[in-house]
Amino acid sequence: MDKRMNAADVVGALRDGMTIGFGGWGPRRKPMAIVREILRSPVKNLTVVAYGGPEVGMLCAAGKVKKLIFGFATLDAIPLEPYYRKAREAGELKELMELDEGMFQWGLRAAGMRLPFLPTRSGIATDVVRLNPELRTIRSPYDDGEVLIAMPALKLDVALLHVNVADRLGNTLVTGPDPYFDHLFARAAEKCYVSAERVEERLELDAASARYNTFERYLVSGVVHAPFGAHPTSCPSDYGWDMTHFKRYSSSAAEEGGWQAYVDEFVAPGEAAYQERNGGTARLATLPLPVF
Amino acid sequence: MTTNIDFTLAELMIVAASEAWRGDGELLASGLGVIPRLGASLAKLTHSPGLLMTDSEAFLVEEPIPLGPRGDYKPKYAGYMPFERVFECVWGGRRHAMIGPTQVDRWGQTNLSCVGEYAKPRSAMLGVRGLPGNSINHINSLFVPSHSRRVFVEGEVDMVSGVGFKPERWNEGECSDLMEIRIVVTDLCVMDFDGPSRAARVRSLHPGVSFAEVQEKTGFPLIAALDMGETALPTADQLAVIRKLDPHDLRATAIKGNPPGIRAAA
């Protein structure tokens, strides 16, 4: 069994109109090498499901987003995601499902458990229910009779994740302090493709390291070796996010033709050129982890 | 009142923010942003040692971590609190967060999503983030660094992200008993929503600020608490703790112009 493939193979498996979940959280551990491959491809009309970071802004800027299902879009240190903001303020994102962060994980969890919905109090009495008329409520069948939101399963056609380590079989390790919700994305998806900083033949770990595994390999359809594949987002414990790049990306949104210039410089020439234009692997490997 | 101690408005607000958590016992104190985080840290190190805090990433600490670059400082972890566990904590109600919304209305509803029309907003912000779930499940306090009618809006906030006390927003059977808005700390005053019928109420005014000024800069009617006085000034001990928690003086950039805690006479 060998699940290795390259990013182009992953994107070749995507179809127009698919619902695609992106792992990570904001500017943290996003599968950016695969995102750049999507940007180089003709795939379009995507429903993007994410705790949004730059992947949301870039896919919006490239006109590939038909619908966005999200709780936020941010680069953290730069609070407002520049191209998400631009798309929203231009009224270009017509289909939005803006959810509480907790409702979002509840929807992924329902999908992973093959349930139609999971009940939650979160979202009640807010505009989340008013703006998402597809959300229905359910009354507790017990004596309390509480009315709750029936958060529908967020079923994904494909989940795209980036991890620190994988093997050819699809075993994965997330060595940073927080696994985020990648495991729920993997469970919610028909197919899950994982890019990894390092790909080994077969993981043979001690017990302490094996606990960095957060989901099972039967969920993983393909493994892509993508060193610095989360850049410009962080990949704890390997490297931090790249503020220099984020600033450049962010300021491009305010420039005439800024997105096309960004694409020409960083996306179109491919990953090797991308790394070179960001100072080379020596610089990328030493990007400091953010301190909070 | 006279004082020999110099302090900034930011430091006054940190002390006011810390009061939000007084008496909370054992729950997760989350202060988002420089002043709320310093407020929570000060609370834990002075009057409320039972509070739980994180390193703002994924671990629990019993000693609040100083802000900014850490130098030789090594965090001492006491437990684990990744995002997934934060949700479990939120839904279980054992948390008191202080957040800075973009808009707040007379019902205590908050907005972090967008300003203007939803389909084509004048300003798109972060998105609702965790506000719907936080606001309905646990105690929240609010932080407003620049008190104005832009924040404290006349009507309803443009996108209700966090719940409040507007009866029309609650349908039969929906549970509003688990929410609480504790206090609102601004650069002018400390407020709450504990007036008659949950009316917004000024609890204390910062030195040199009048009730009339606060009302003028608020888009909805305020009432003065019966015992409304001056916001407590920081003590020398509190200032020493704050300096230790914020060795790079990030608090100096938290309020525009870093004004002194006691206004110069107009």
Structure, described:
The complex is a heterodimer of chains A (292) and B (266). Chain A is an alpha/beta fold and 292 residues long. Helix content of chain A is 31%, strand content 24%. Chain A is built from 12 helices and 12 strands. In chain A, the strands form 2 sheets. In chain A, strands 1, 2, 3, 4, 5, 9, 10, 11 and 12 form a 9-stranded mixed beta sheet that branches. In chain A, strands 6-8-7 form a 3-stranded antiparallel beta sheet. In chain A, β9 and β10 form a beta hairpin. The longest helix of chain A is centred in the middle third of the chain and has 12 residues. Chain A is globular, with a radius of gyration of 19 Å. Chain B has 266 residues and is of the alpha/beta class. Chain B is 21% helix and 21% strand. Chain B is built from 6 helices and 14 strands. In chain B, strands 1-5-10-11-12-13-14 form a 7-stranded mixed beta sheet, sandwiched between helices. Chain B has a 3-stranded antiparallel beta sheet with strand order 2-3-4. In chain B, strands 6-7 form a two-stranded antiparallel ribbon. In chain B, α1 packs across α2 and α2 crosses α6. The longest helix of chain B is centred in the N-terminal third of the chain and has 12 residues. Chain B is globular, with a radius of gyration of 18 Å. The chains are: A alpha/beta (292), B alpha/beta (266). Chains A and B meet through β4, α4, α5 and α6 of A and α3, β9 and α4 of B. Chain A: InterPro entries: CoA_trans_fam_I (IPR004165), NagB/RpiA_transferase-like (IPR037171). Chain A: This is Acyl CoA--acetate/3-ketoacid CoA transferase subunit alpha. Chain A: GO terms for molecular function: transferase activity. Chain A: Keywords: Transferase. Chain B: This is Ketoacid CoA transferase. Chain B: One of its GO terms (molecular function) is transferase activity.
